[in-house]
Amino acid sequence: MSEFIVYPAIDVRDGAVVRLRQGDYAAETRYPADPLALAKQYAAAGAKWLHLVDLDAARAGGYTLAPLLGRIKRETRLKVQTGGGVRSEADVQALLEAGADRVVIGSLAVREPARVAGLMGRLDAGCITLALDTRRDAEGRWRLPVHGWTEAGGRELDILAAAYADLGLRHLLCTDIARDGMLSGPNLELYRYLCGRFPQLAVQASGGARDVADVAAAREAGCGGIVLGKALLDGQLGLADALAAGARPC
């Protein structure tokens, strides 16, 4: 099995570190930490990667965190995957030039798969993470909302993930929106299914992680990594402990 990566997450809105509950912008928790200081704290704890999200841009477009991204890259040794408001190939190129190691593409991948397929054909697949974040509908189908999860999407997770896997996708971030910010545990059933169906993908689990047992369970489910947000910010889970759990043999 390839290296399992623990991604501490920093979500930024109006310059502040925040967490949303189930993607709801009206259900926000703000934290006193400065985003750059927090990134340095995570680097000092041993993180190799950071997951950085521009929540303002996720809803309105126009990535605003390039200055922060640049300082994180200059002042830490962290690799950074980042997104929010990525609407075009020019946006992807701008983030790569600003220092991103991977660019997270979400709504665009759902709304305009033909454009993203063309983009993937022109860029190194290793520098793209597709965020196919999902919510189960009343019929039990995994749907893909867009625009920072604020708009219902008609596409289904299975179908779109299969199409992108056939195009050479390597990194898939999948959040079960119902568990995001809830500290209710990751949806291991979903991740076991995705990892079994698409063994060529490094699936990043996101949403609900509470403790080291959840980190270990995501790895055992076959995931290539896990994104940790609220549990770290609330002090419920220590990053050093999470990193140790991620590195421990299954």
TrEMBL record:
Species of the source: Arenimonas caeni
GO terms under cellular component: cytoplasm
Involved pathway(s): Amino-acid biosynthesis; L-histidine biosynthesis; L-histidine from 5-phospho-alpha-D-ribose 1-diphosphate: step 4/9
UniProt protein name: 1-(5-phosphoribosyl)-5-[(5-phosphoribosylamino)methylideneamino] imidazole-4-carboxamide isomerase
Xref: SUPFAM superfamilies: Ribulose-phoshate binding barrel
Active site positions, chain numbering: 11 (proton acceptor), 133 (proton donor)
Entry EC no(s): 5.3.1.16
Gene3D superfamilies per the UniProt record, alphabetical: Aldolase class I
Reaction equations catalysed: 1-(5-phospho-beta-D-ribosyl)-5-[(5-phospho-beta-D-ribosylamino)methylideneamino]imidazole-4-carboxamide = 5-[(5-phospho-1-deoxy-D-ribulos-1-ylimino)methylamino]-1-(5-phospho-beta-D-ribosyl)imidazole-4-carboxamide
Gene Ontology annotations of biological process type: L-histidine biosynthetic process; L-tryptophan biosynthetic process
GO MF annotations, alphabetized: 1-(5-phosphoribosyl)-5-[(5-phosphoribosylamino)methylideneamino]imidazole-4-carboxamide isomerase activity
